[in-house]
Amino acid sequence: MGLLTGPASLTRFNIVALPPELDFEMARFMEIQPGSEVRERSGFVPIEPEAPYEVGTQRYAFRVRIDKLSPDPTAVGERLKQLIRSEIELTGAEFVGPKKRKRLKELAEEELIVKSTPRSKIIECCIDGQILHVASTAKAYLGIVLELLRKIGVAAEIKAPWIDREDPDIESDLIMVREPGQSVLGCRFLKALMGDPEVMIEGEAGNVRLVTSEARVTLTGAVLPELHRYVEQGAEILSAKVVTAATGFRFDALSYKLNGLRIETDRHDHWTELLDERLEKIDAAWELLDRKYEELAAEILS
After folding, report:
1. pTM score, whole prediction
2. What is the extent of the structural domain holding 291?
3. Mean pLDDT over residues 281-293, rounded?
4. What is the pLDDT of residue 83?
């Protein structure tokens, strides 16, 4: 799910520091060499081989590649059994204790990791003016992207309307805010959207996550009757599948992130033209949400 193909999962950031020139080569990706003790490596790669990073006025398109070297868990389990058997035959012991078992497991992993091939994760990103788009909502991957950008002089902070407006935060007995940028205001925003004619909670093939005083609840299918009942009883909406006139996506209210944003585009001769159209439609989805938050702010903050 990236910026260029398929449904997009997106996190948006405000650029707070940007040098006059960006040198992505300073933190370029370098492969893990066979026999190396390095287990994980990340860095920048261009969207296409040899493609420029700068693709327009104040627009940079790039990918972050993350390679991780880890042995197959099933193979580790099988090798561990062999090592335990050999240990029992060698020592004559009836069993292997937990400390020895842990050391044998580490040995099995070290043996197998030499033969393992790194697994790669690619995250597409774009700096567009003062906005950073990252095609991921995973906290771990977002952290890697931001760390790499800091190495080339770029600093970014999560973008959400309550941050841009400097709205006072509110508390909820049901929700614990754990990550930067998260706010209960996002949940109240999603609640305020119930019945909205422009951004509607999917009612027939819906998917909603709520938190009540007793448990977390997931609703699927025709969710609206049960959703209204839970909300009336004081539940908070954490996320929901929503639809607009142009598209549909899953909205993570607490973090103001989009998952599975459907983007229909025309055929293009070059990937930069495709990126232009997809970014235009991505921006339109964000702008609609931002506008609705502005319209509903009084209700959300009351």
Report:
1. 0.87
2. 161-301
3. 97
4. 87
